[in-house]
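BUG: 3D viewer hangs when loading the predicted structure for this chain

Environment: internal workstation, default settings.
Expected: structure renders.
Actual: progress bar stalls at 90%.

Input used:
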Amino acid sequence: MSIESKHRFQAISLGFLAGYVNTVGFVALFGLMTALVTGNFILIGANLVSDSSSAVLIKFLAFPAFILGIAAIRVLTIWLDSKHRQNLQIQLTVLLQLVLLVAFMVTGLLASPIGNEPTTAAIICGMFGAAAMGAHSAYTRLLLPHLAPTSMMTGNVTQIVLDAMELMLGKGDTATKVRMSKSLWTIAAFATGAIVAGFCYVALSFWALLLPIGILVWLLRKEHYCELEAAQV
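Structure tokens produced before the viewer hung:
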């Protein structure tokens, strides 16, 4: 498999994971967006003026949890830099995401069945989900700059439209086509993950998170990381 194919498969896997986890959080936890925390501010405003404002706290706490996930990844990468162990950055940052995602699943199962009001257990569950996706966002931004963003699709859609216009006007080049292809694959994977997650959660409750957990386990394979690190040199 070529480096380009490996990067594409990686983008598809991570985009699928982000869309999937975000949908599980939204369906299970009162409309919580674990991967798109800025969207929670809109939902907070809507909840505050609606008949039901009970879900405001879980959305509000998702923001600091998301920030903590980002900060944890950055602290980990800086610490590994100081120890001259940059070769472990990808493995350990994915491992951290895996631990947070497992915690999201376990606390979700403990909080189930989730009723009409968010319990303390459900709030903790949501915070683990947001922290996991904060770590995911930081990991892809810091260590996988060759990929299009895997959890924030608005920027990808904007870039695709800009690139399409460049090509239509005859101003695009090979780099434009490559960039457009990267965004298209990621968007398609994110959308697929979001759709699949809804059905999986209805059927399996929080056990549905075993699928994205499995994706992260696959990403921890030593051979996979050696190839990626060689590609980044």
